[in-house]
# Entry
Amino acid sequence: MPGERAAAAPGQTSITIPGIGRQGGEYPWSFFNAITPGYFEALRIPIQAGRDFTWDDWGAAQERGLVNETLVREYLKGESPVGRLVGQGRESTPHIEIIGVFASTRYENVRGQVPRQTFVSMGGVRMRTFSGMTVYARTDRDPRQVMPLLRDEVRRVDPNLVVSDMRTLDSQRDMRLSNERMLSVLSTAFALLATLLAVVGLYGVLAFVVTQRTREIGIRMALGAEQRNVIRLVLNEVIALFAFGIFAGVLVGIGGGRFVESQLFGVNADDPCVFALSGAALLAAALVAAFVPAWKASRIDPIRALR
# Structure
């Protein structure tokens, strides 16, 4: 069965922070969630300062809340908000006591900046105003086995409650990234096709060059050049072309990577590992394409070449 369970109901509104007025032409605002104790534990969100909710906060006379690090950094300039009062709504009376600060996490999507968030304790008046809520459950078992058990538990509590859209966080993330995954698959397919065309083209060019230089190679071999010298002669030209291509590719990759970085989640335009692996793969492809013409050149009969 699930280890931790928690519920949350979202919203977005202006907030009132004593001593903090309009900034950049807008009033302070934050996403608001009413949650139950266990929410941060279930989602593995660490508490950076203060404390987490307890069941003593449920429906307490003094409403309590936690804010994320983004709100503290942008509105309070890093000062500890623990113990301060804030209000929900523009120019409202501060009535929510901040008891802690939690680590900033993404909210609506996996891209963009992390928004400001305020979590208050669910219960009392807030509980009666909800039209629906999200329940999170953490389990060490297969989620597909646990979901029917959770549905049965809800029906046992109240048969009139409707449970819908049960899914794991992984599936939720995959749904959010479906466009990115499709774009990455298409980009990979076109990149492989372009590499194949480049290899075929390089092979054709080198085969033509070797044919044009048949007499030169024959003379070199007649004067004592060995097979490895001829192979090295052809491959050196490939290395020169490869070095120029890599230099141009890195410049274009860094420039185009900025655009890709803004469109795909978790992509770093300056990742040295990606450039290193791409360069190594292209070098291997170039050497494979060049080896066959180089090997044929090393097998030329000097007498026939000179004739």
Residues 227-263 form the longest helix (37 residues). The longest strand covers residues 4-16. Residues 177-306 form one domain. The CA atoms of residues 268 and 274 lie 9 Å apart.
